[in-house]
Amino acid sequence: MAIATVTDVQDRFNRPLTPEEETLAETLLDDAEIKIRRRIPNLAARAAADAEFAETVVMVEANAVLRVLRNPEGYRQETDGDYSYSVSAAVASGRLMILDEEWADLGLNRGAFTIRPKIGTPRRGPMRCRRGWWP
After folding, report:
1. pTM recorded for the entire structure
2. 124 domain-assigned
3. Would you state the pLDDT for residue 94?
4. DSSP string computed for 46-69
5. Could you tell me which of 53, 58, 121, 133 has the fewest CB atoms within 10 Å of its CB?
6. Domain presence at residue 128
């Protein structure tokens, strides 16, 4: 069971949820929590120990679900004669996803990293090779 509830999703939506949307929201909240728990295995314990972290988890889970509810088919643009309508992919992608910014809010940064090879100093004196010793 997710930390966020259908009520948390409803509070962030600009209209009442239909019964079908409530059922979908409940399922998607569980799915969102699975995604988060994969990267934060002690999610429940951290949320229980830190109220601010728990509020952040609720916000992230609810917003991830809202992106699906606002655009369940994932449409980006619609045109009918002179009428045209487009949806921002970030706001309503139609996919259940946790944004990089939300991972950062949860304390996880995702991005570039640097690999630093360890370069040792050359050895001095004779070294052994397959054919024997060499200076």
Report:
1. 0.68
2. no
3. 62
4. HHHH-HHHHHHHHHHHHHHHHHHH
5. 121
6. no
